[in-house]
Inverse folding.
């Protein structure tokens, strides 16, 4: 699969698509980022059903700030819009390949259930004294 470049306009629509999305964050002046580029491209070619994208941190400062990217190279792995991994540092090709397979293996129904439980627990209104604490 082709690795696409993301900007602030394309990020949302790409993230909203169902499936797996790997995003590489880097810059042209970053030597480890340049070392990771061919690894990222080779893995992308082996997984045409997975979306692979790059973000140039120098050109996309707004995305960098919103997503909290602080060091490079960085890799984010999403599935169905859920952030599964936020990694900083160069990855070897077998490790990146394994991450793709791990993302495939995530039970998204279970993750959605967990998220629904978390949201429900945060929306309960507790008034008065709590029986288990001060």
């Amino acid at each position: 699969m082709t690795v696409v470049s993301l900007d602030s306009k394309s990020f949302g629509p790409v993230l909203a698509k169902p499936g797996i999305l790997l995003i590489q964050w880097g810059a042209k002046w970053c030597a480890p980022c340049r070392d990771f580029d061919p690894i990222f491209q080779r893995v992308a070619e082996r997984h045409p059903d997975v979306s692979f994208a790059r973000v140039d941190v120098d050109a996309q400062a707004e995305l960098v700030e919103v997503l909290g990217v602080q060091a490079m190279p960085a890799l984010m792995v999403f599935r169905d819009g859920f952030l599964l991994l936020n990694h900083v540092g160069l990855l070897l090709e077998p490790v990146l390949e394994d991450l793709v397979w791990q993302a495939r293996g995530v039970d998204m129904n279970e993750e959605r259930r967990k998220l629904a439980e978390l949201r429900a627990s945060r929306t309960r209104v507790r008034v008065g004294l709590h029986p288990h604490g001060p």
